[in-house]
Write a structure and sequence with these properties.
With 236 residues, this protein is of the alpha/beta class. Helix content is 37%, strand content 26%.
Length: 236
């Protein structure tokens, strides 16, 4: 049974429909990527799954339960965590204060110290700068902090929206490697990413979203060899 399952999901903003019956399932302790061009509905899917955007129809199932209509804070306490696009940090707060904000739900509070050690082990730069205000950090450091804050929520499923957006290649590589570390630590990861080549290279399984529907899915290595994907998304 899938740990998280999206069934025929339809949603949008106001009168504008973005998702047109999307389906996706996450297997436990696997790294799954959702790739596709700009504006195809990747972020809308994550927001709907998390409860930040109401589904118009279809359903979201987590650990065998229908969680479609539950508010975001309840889903967070169940172990669903979203690292949003654009980081959305508290820029006037320090690195450590931002991390502590990630552990405010009832599930995460008892494990705050343990998860803080995990974050600092994975991202030593954050430990070095734990007293620095997050607004003064580089884009790459801020993205590390956003991922770290997600880890502080003690997730069962960590959904990461546009991990590499606007980052230098060396930092991008480090962050992609951290996704694999999280998977190896037993966290189920859903990575939404425009860097199709890198996302498929590190993932176990992949989905390709086009115009609000899943166009293709399969083992990530198999998708990376697919001629349509190579031509459309990789320019090969």
């Amino acid at each position: 049974m899938a740990l998280l399952e999206i069934r025929d999901l339809v949603s949008g903003y106001g009168q504008v429909q973005i998702l047109w019956g999307a389906n996706l399932s996450l297997q436990e302790k696997k790294l799954t990527c959702l790739v596709g061009g700009n504006g195809v509905g990747k972020t809308s899917m994550l927001r709907t799954v998390m409860g930040l955007l109401p589904p118009w129809s279809g359903s979201v199932w987590f650990e065998g339960k229908d969680v479609s209509r539950l508010p975001a804070y309840v889903k967070a306490e169940m172990g669903l965590t979203l690292v949003p696009e654009g980081r959305q940090l508290f820029t006037d707060m320090t690195v450590e204060e931002n991390l502590e904000m990630g552990a405010t739900n009832r599930r995460a509070r008892p494990k705050m110290k343990q998860n803080l050690e995990k974050v600092y082990t994975m991202f030593p730069r954050l430990q070095e700068r734990r007293a620095q205000k997050s607004g003064t950090m580089s884009g790459g450091e801020q993205q590390m902090l956003a991922v770290g804050r997600g880890i502080m929520a003690d997730p069962v499923v960590l959904m990461v929206d546009e991990l590499s957006l606007g980052l230098a290649p060396v930092l991008t590589l480090n962050l992609f490697q951290s996704m694999r570390q999280l998977r190896d630590a037993g966290i189920t990861v859903l990575l939404v990413e425009q860097n199709v080549q890198m996302a498929l290279a590190i993932s176990d399984y992949g989905y390709v979203l086009a115009e609000g529907k899943v166009e293709m899915e399969g083992p990530a290595r198999q998708l990376a060899r697919n001629e349509h994907i190579r031509a459309t998304y990789l320019g090969l």
